[in-house]
Amino acid sequence: xxxxxxxxxxxxxxxxxxxxxxxxxxxxxxxxxxxxxxxxxxxxxxxxxxxxxxxxxxxxxxxxxxxxxxxxxxxxxxxxxxxxxxxxxxxxxxxxxxxxxxxxxxxxxxxxxxxxxxxxxxxxxxxxxxxxxxxxxxxxxxxxxxxxxxxxxxxxxxxxxxxxxxxxxxxxxxxxxxxxxxxxxxxxxxxxxxxxxxxxxxxxxxxxxxxxxxxxxxxxxxxxxxxxxxxxxxxxxxxxxxxxxxxxxxxxxxxxxxxxxxxxxxxxxxxxxxxxxxxxxxxxxxxxxxxxxxxxxxxxxxxxxxxxxxxxxxxxxxxxxxxxxxxxxxxxxxxxxxxxxxxxxxxxxxxxxxxxxxxxxxxxxxxxxxxxxxx
Length: 375
Hints:
The chain is of the alpha+beta class. It has four domains: about 45-55 and about 295-370, conserved putative lor/sdh protein from methanococcus maripaludis s2 fold, CATH 2.40.420; about 75-100 and about 175-200, CATH 2.40.50.100; about 100-175, Helix hairpin bin (Helix Hairpins); about 220-295, Elongation Factor Tu (Ef-tu), domain 3 (Beta Barrel). The chain is built from five helices and 22 strands. The chain has helices spanning about 5, 15, 100-135, 145-175, 225-230; strands at about 40-45, 50, 55-70, 75-80, 90, 95-100, 180, 185-190, 195-200, 210-225, 235-240, 250-260, 270-275, 285-295, 300-305, 305-310, 315-320, 325-330, 330-335, 340, 350-355, 365-370. Strands 1, 16, 17, 18, 21 and 22 form a six-stranded mixed beta sheet that branches. Strands 3-10-13-12-11-14 form a six-stranded antiparallel beta barrel.
């Protein structure tokens, strides 16, 4: 064997026949799936309805006398006559009671006598003054005497005026002994009996004699909330009903309002005038006034289940350009299935969401389901 043959490396036959082994390449990693866009939720919407039909507004109220007065006397004495009692009807200037004041009557007689004396003195001094003027023209009397007589005449005239004023004062006081009705009325209460002693100017608030009320016209007083009070101008008609008079209605009209809202109750006092010529209705009777009023401009009707109350604010969830938007509204009367709402931004074409989800946020995309689609 040659040297070349000895340098050859012996390779086993099995190695030559074995298949070649190669390093396997790693499989390519799967690509992540592209994210799919979330599906916009579907919401049912309804358009608001314009409130165009007049509807009744009912407010509770109470009747009050058109006029009411507690009658006192300024004379002090004993009640001599009591001509009317509780429930009686009186006319203006009727004599209600007579107070016996003999000492005041004697004082009036004395004042009249003083007036007569003053008149006599005044007439005498005036005659002397006139005579002095004639004598002064004939230089039969000094000017000093003439001036003194003229002064005495002026003093006598002043004394006469004082006496007459005192007589008028006493006669006025004596006139107070006759108690008269200031207006047509019904005696609601009486606070004395014949023979009682009554005090005049020194009487306390409890010293009244009669309580008179005018009932041929009644005030029907109610407290209206702002949404109604501002829609009740003078002469607005109403029908008043009372449970005590079933089947009957009484016509009334708004006469006046306080024009001020009570800061505690948030209501305004409204007074209606109610004719009661036959005195059928008493004062203090509770009833209901029914007004037929057209809806305020910009008032709409929406289903009750569309309203949302958040932080004390009432709003509607609406859809504008496929996205959620919240619209603040002022809620009015609840009519059962519907509610009156008003807002300057609300229109008959607004899409209002029914039963809005609490998770809805402004700007959320939604798909609208119009009413009547059956979905």
